[in-house]
Amino acid sequence: MQEQLVFVRNQMLPPEAPPPGQKGIARWMRENLFSGPMNSALTLLGLLAVVWLALHVLPWLMHSVWNANSLNECRQIIQDRWGEGATGACWAMVRERWHQYLYGFYPQDMYWRPNLALLLLFAALAPVLFSSLPRKMLWITALYPATGFWLLWGGTIWAPVVAMMGFVVLWLVFTVLQPRLGVPVSAGIGVVAAAVWWMVLQAPMTDALQSLAPLRIRAVDSRDFGGFLLSFVIGVTAISASLPMGILLALGRKSDMLLVRTLSVGFIEFIRGVPLITLLFTASLLLQYFLPPETNFDIILRVIILVTFFAAAYIAEVIRGGLAALPRGQYEAADALGLDYWQAQRLIIMPQALKISIPGIVSSFIGLFKDTTLVAFVGLNDPLKGITQIVRADINWKGIYWEPYIFAGALFFLICFGMSRYSMWLERKLKTDHR
Amino acid sequence: MAFVQDAPKDSFRLSMLIYDTRYRSLTIQVVVLILFMLFLSWLLNNTIQNLAAKDRTFDFGFLLSRAGYDINQRLVEYTNDSTHARAAFIGLLNTLLSAVVGCILATIIGVVVGVLRLSNNWLVSRLMTVYVEMFRNVPVLLWILLAATILSETTPNPRDFRVTPEMQAAGEAPKATMLFGIIAVTNRGTDIPEPKFCVGKPREECDADPNEGGLGIIDLGIFKVSLNLLALLVVFGGSIFATRRLKRQADATQDATGVRPVTWWKNLLILVLPSAALLWALGLHFVVPELKGFNFAGGITVLHSFTALTLALALYTAAFIAEIVRAGIMAISRGQSEAAAALGLRPARTMRLVILPQALRVIIPPLISQYLNLTKNTSLAIAVSYMDLRGTLGGITLNQTGKELECMLLMMGIYLTISLIISSCMNIFNRAVRLKER
Q1: In chain B, positions 39-68, which contact chain A (CB-CB < 8 Å)?
Q2: What biological-process GO terms show up in the record (chain B) (predicted)?
Q3: Which domains does chain A have, with CATH numbers?
């Protein structure tokens, strides 16, 4: 039998080259653009849209003018350069007004202060976001509220220092009393002591220290804040203050205690049920009714308080989602270990629940950051409406509309898109399970 | 060796209120209740003092007094002699109109974009990604302002539509022409044809009448109901009922014989014919807007503020809905459609019977919360001076009467009611489609 075999191939044939339509760009186009009549039609439609857009937008962008003092001058330059009837973008407006978009009416010679505050913000956020950094850096985070406030608003350094000392008072009272009275009672007394400090001692202490050592930088009025500086101040303060509040509300909503649960649900549903604008109007119109007579504090602070409530309600729902996603076994395991409620929350439940909620928290933050533009309606200079209105009211730039909106929109896009990409990256990094 | 252990004392010590888990939750609740009550009474006390200091009262009587201002878009009858309450009602209707139109538009755009983003067409899916990311990452206020500015600054003046005899002689075209010959977009608004009904009268006579004609209207006190619309609703409802019966019959036939009768053309006829016949009998015709003097007359003028607000909200929300739809479809595992194919279901029925019911369970809850967001975002009407609830009750009424507290509380209450209604719809839906576990 063996001899009858005439030919046995003992080496592989070299692979044939694919037919011309099956390789390279032709194949890719057939598979991805023209795989059927429906797809071909869609591709053609898409191409048509792209070409139409390019024909309209590209000449406009190519005819950009960066050096001019008014819209009319811009148009004149465009007519001279590219002929009658040409249209072009007038970025000279951005060149002249960019600082208002970024800082509002913050005094120009003190731009280093918000810039430094922003840098410090990143330094303060870094140890929270990247666990590999040394834990000592958390002190920057803890001190940031005072330093940030002082840099932005200026005035005497002693006001934020004395305010921070309130927390020291709280901690001192707590550590002294805790061995004798236990955690809940000593924490309560600590909070009361800190409150007394802030209400009674804050003002005289600040004045006394200021007269002893007059350390102050020029104060900046809240009305001068504007542009992205204002958006950042409101957004960052509100989101960082709303996180602890949101966690407490989420725990309250899942609590067994009827009263606590009812109050939490009522608060969350009320805030989520009304538009942010009504809350902002509450800040500007109604707080004067609800607070003791003669109290009159800063409009930015009032807005921040209401925006914090708003964000806290949304964050509470996000965290509740995270809590609900945890398997019951985790709670039972914590109980089996003999941990009490707060220990279980701190060591077992919250680390996992917060990890699950990160994408939701970041998207609430993006939403909140976008919503900071609504402060325009209570008379603050937000980057979108407030500043653009000021620019368009200027006789030189009357009638300009594409450029300011494109500029502000592009900045918003960069920030929000960046944050959403960061959250996607973080989500992948923190994913430790292999479901 | 005897080991004596003290029996736990049964006596009650004060510290047990905090450290004994039997009493602790009670203690906490009592403390919370006391703090809450203190807080409430503090707020109330402040409010009363402040009201007294400003020499104001807290009452809603102003709602029944004459409003004295005009509203440029009214769905039901309103004059400046009407009450503040009616002005608020008009504002509420405007809010709801913008919300409903916006939701419908957003759903259509969102579903199309979401499905196209999943398509294997490289160009189209990239374009849709660009659309979604562009609209999601920029404040909605920008889209509203941009839409309003473009509509008011780039649209022609009504006089640009005019064709003078000289121009006709010279063969010149006017600077602007109407869309399809029936829609005129001017810098004052968009003029669209108005449906009119006419029964038993010459058409010219009907057109001269400001009312919509036909069967007329009945006055319900608060608002008037068009009998034409009512008749149309009754007939259309009957048609829907008939198609349901047809479906049941078809189901029965399929159960008995295994063959499903073809019903789509019968359904179409039942749905379209009676309504069309009714509309013909009522003498439906459209009055096309015409340039008269300095402005367009006849037809309905849709304000640019409404168009800009609704369009911008719809485009913005559609980007979120597209993501929801995409996630919902991707959440269904491939095994489901393969199993359906193995059972011998055609692709269309696979979609309708297997994929959609499961995808909808994932899609609908976030979709409804997007509707809720859109409804709340209509309060951004303030940016384009559209007279919604905030523009009437929370705007002019508040400024005229100075009743800040009452107006704001009422407005919040109304928004809250709308939200609660929408979210209770969602709860009902969730309960209906919840996985039935046994």
Answers
A1: 43, 46-47, 49-51, 53
A2: amino acid transport
A3: 52-89 (no CATH), 155-217 (no CATH), 222-434 (1.10.3720.10)
